[in-house]
Amino acid sequence: MRRVVSGSFALPTSDAMIGIGLALACALVPLVTPSAYALSFLFTVFMYGALAGSWNIIGGYAGYLSFGHAAFFGLGAYTTALLLFYFGWSPFLTMPLAGAVAALFAALVGYPCLRLRGPYFSLVTLILGLAMYALVLNLPFTQGSTGLFLPFLKVDVYTSHVIFYEVMLALLVVVTAILRQITRTKMGVGLAAIREDEDAAGTLGVDATRLKLQAFMLSAFLTGLVGGVYSYYKSYLDPSFVFATSISITIVLMALFGGRLTWYGPLVGAMTLSVVNEVLTTQAPPQTARIVFGALLIGVIMFLPDGLMSIVQRHFRHS
Amino acid sequence: MFYELAQSLTSGLLIGSALAVLSVGFSMAWGITHVLNVAHCAFAVLAAYLGYWSLSLWGIDPLLALPAMLPLFFVLGVAMHRLLIRTTARRAHDLGLATMVLTFGLGVVMENGMQLAWTPDPRVLKTAYSSLAFSIGPLIVQAPHLVAFGLATATIGALYLFAERTFMGKAVRAVWQQPMGAALSGIDLDRVTTIAYGLAVATSAVGGVAMSLLYTFDPATHLSWLVYVFLVVILGGVGSILGSALAGLIIGLIIGVSSVFVPLAWNNLVLFGLLILLLLLRPQGLLQR
Description:
The complex is a heterodimer.
Chain A: H1 6-10, H2 15-28, H3 36-61, H4 70-87, H5 91-113, H6 119-138, E1 148-149, H7 157-183, H8 186-196, H9 198-203, H10 208-234, E2 236-237, H11 239-242, H12 245-258, H13 265-283, H14 286-303, H15 309-318
Antiparallel strand pairs in A: 1-2
Helix pairs in contact in A: 3-7, 3-10, 3-12, 3-13, 4-5, 4-6, 4-10, 5-10, 7-10, 8-10, 12-13, 13-14
Chain B: H1 2-33, H2 40-58, H3 62-91, H4 95-118, E1 133-136, E2 139-142, H5 143-165, H6 167-177, H7 179-184, H8 189-214, H9 221-236, H10 241-261, H11 267-281
Antiparallel strand pairs in B: 1-2
């Protein structure tokens, strides 16, 4: 079994200190009053970091590549948006509910779906994502493809940018801490065993069914939380965006790009690709940006199947 | 009501034949090489656009352009196998997953490339026979449907004869059933899988042209066609030519029936639900033993 708990050995043991330092530095950034553009760009980076990290629990650690995480993101977004829209409850309070709805859905579909392996699991999650979108468009209380218009925060625009920035940063820290903690627990070892050889893991007493379901639900919960904040941030819930297959794909791509076997890989992938994406979309038509994205995906899977971070790891091992 | 049902069953059956030819190559490639080519329908949409071009630029019917497209798509398939899939296969721990991600990337590149070339606007193919229709008894059959059916029957028939009657076809089947045994009896695995791959992509061109006769298309259409292909392949069993043909017809009939009884907006949901159920209950295919 290779790299069972690679995350904890790859970097110096001070990795946690570096992480906390970085998070604190990021939290203090609004003090220097950066532009609203910079804040919203960093919000996107944090969001994708949190999403790729959440995905990595089931997709990276357990090796079950979900191509339908947009379903959880969208469910979370709809939960808080509907509660705000109909009852006026603040998404910052109802966020845990968004996660719970996503986790509940994950439990319902995960129980049958997680019996499928390899590409079959990826296929069924992909279709689930598409089905959720089709379902939401047809429900009576979601206003179909029009989406939901939500009230703004009752502060000025810049302050609200700062608030959302800090909230998303906090979510990112929570996700990353959970992701790192998993690699140091029995759960992490169990998931790695499932990834490397599920049948062998079963014979060694790993309760694969239970572990996979837990990982799937945890992953969905965190994704739902992020979705719950997102719709409030945009103050408009666009069903074609929150359930878009492109979100599912972007998350997978980021985690694979950075390296799905480590806790910091998805984060690095999300940061790198967000910057690439931002540069490309401001310089070229969106199609060109997506072509480069697809080409990157091809390149990574062909030449670096363990992601960008595998280079760094190799370097640390040899030194 | 009965008449309406009979009418939509007829057109469903003809649509189903187009779905079958769209799926048969995907099924073959998955069966032989264990590669899920998620970009399969992107190739099909590319063929649809090339047919559209030949009609609108030179006035040549897509059916006449198809013989020129087939070798081109065969070469594309061979190139894809040689350049992309073999390299990935050498390093991947899990071939099925790795190639799925790989071809997903390829699909994204092709879809957006086509958007740059032809804009994201939907296209309609207006051939000389688009508005022709025949009546068979009380039923009306549209000419494009019949043409698509003819294309599908000819292609699947040829593919079946190739697999059953020719030496290369038998080699392909041998590799599908037992790669190690095939290699031991002197079959060049690499050459056979490459040829099978070229054929798979070539049939996607036929499928694309057949579908473009029936539906409007745009670069993003390949994802919704892919859902049909998954349904057909999972129902018919991975790698089976006749299974794909039969499953295509069944799916066509289901589409026909649900267009009568289910409101239009819920049609896709019926298909998604069916596919999810099928994947959960019998991922090896309903029509397989």
